Input
Amino acid sequence: MTSPAKKTALFGQARLDELTENLTTATPDVFIPYSTKIKRSNYLGLKQASHHLGLMEQEFVDEAIKEKLARTPGAEQPLPPAVLAALERKTAKLRN
Output
């Protein structure tokens, strides 16, 4: 086990729990903007379902991603602290 002094040395002035606090105690899981490309047929299917069924597209896409991640090995493993801290510094979407 690493002592608090060693954690401070490893991560600069911040301790590990301070670096990950924003992500672990953040507001409830809210939607954040994210963009990607999908195949034309999937786009049309999504629009058709949205039109005919009143489907909420972002919720549908979010659920599909959640289901796929549940079956993906490693998706539930947390990022290494240094990678998580760098991602949070670089990505305003993850900051409170």
About this structure: Helices lie at 4-10, 16-24, 40-53, 57-70, 81-90. The longest helix spans residues 40-53. The mean pLDDT is 79.
